[in-house]
Target: GlcNAc-PI de-N-acetylase
Amino acid sequence: MTEPTTAQLKPMPDDWQRALAVVAHPDDLEYGCSAAIAAWTDAGREVAYVLATRGEAGIDTLEPAQCGPLREREQRASAAVVGVSVVEFLDHRDGVIEYGTALRRDIAAAIRRHRPELVITLNHRDTWGGVDWNTPDHVAVGRATLDAAGDAGNRWIFPELTEQGLEPWNGVRWVAVAGSNTPTHAVDATPGMERAVRSLLEHRTYIEALTEEDPESYVRGFLTGYAKSTGERFGGRPAVAFELFGR
Ligand SMILES: [Zn+2]
Model:
């Protein structure tokens, strides 16, 4: 495992037009990443979201059949706050997403549909750092997304996609992993922070089930605290960090 360092984070590349974010659950992007997405859409860039599940296993007091549609609505509202109007669901089962060719194929298909230069995903490693264990869904989706960036460009890996009219897309230049314990790059979180707070607040049912705290103070405290600590490695500016894998 790579040890965390205190080296300064580099600014994220900005010579791109289309990004696709691929994560496991509703709220995965809002827990730390959406201030960057707000800044990008402000600059006229297109960002689309693809979620492997509808997060239907995320609330103990709600049956999956009720929870899934509710979390889908919350996710769409949350995306709209940061300028994202395209939100798709791959309908893998929440909590038991399997890393494998079916997942890689679904993500490769999404990459071919959207033709992004930048792909964003969430921490694919076993832990968030130290002994803070990650969930199997994040590990599976993060890893499959890193792999699918290559799969999307190869005509012969999933030939059935080409038969469905999805031509290879070999234009992904980077995969940016949010929530990594070994980040390399960052985006200034200040311009997008208020919308990031409102965006996470749209997951209200989830947050109310999670904490006794007032939702807004919980969300604001979490996001500003996280951005501030990341900013210690970004010239003191609150920041959203990514581990950037070039291709
Ligand atoms: Zn998640």
